[in-house]
Q: What sequence folds into this?
């Protein structure tokens, strides 16, 4: 069986992306990063792979997250002291961590216990501020 590719398919692109991530894992580790396949785009005869490298230093992540929060909080009616505020919504506890300024749901929070990032609409603001339950 030959490994020669004559046309790109979604399955071949996934395989290549996984192999690229595996091949760059040593480089990522050298710099304290994580690496994962990030998709890409393809045509029958061309594949452009996207490989995602991400900072894993939790202190660096927290510092960047807090600086970004402080830069945007007033635009959303909050203060720097609101960073990390825990609020309850639909039976779940969340920690306010930032903003997605280019989205319809600009408030970003992490669900406690799962580390899942969740985006909330502006309507969540009274709950974050403790005005409504």
A:
């Amino acid at each position: 069986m030959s490994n020669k590719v004559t046309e790109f398919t979604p399955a071949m692109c996934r395989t290549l992306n996984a192999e690229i991530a595996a091949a760059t894992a040593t480089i990522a580790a050298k710099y304290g990063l994580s690496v994962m396949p990030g998709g890409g785009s393809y045509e029958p005869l061309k594949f452009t792979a996207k490989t995602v490298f991400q900072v894993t230093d939790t202190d660096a992540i927290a510092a960047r997250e807090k600086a970004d929060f402080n830069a945007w909080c007033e635009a959303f009616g909050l203060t720097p002291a609101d960073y990390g505020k825990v609020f309850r919504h639909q039976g779940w506890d969340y920690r306010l961590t930032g903003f997605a300024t280019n989205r319809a749901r600009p408030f970003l929070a992490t669900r406690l216990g799962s580390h899942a990032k969740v985006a909330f609409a502006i309507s969540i603001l009274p709950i974050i501020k403790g005005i409504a339950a």
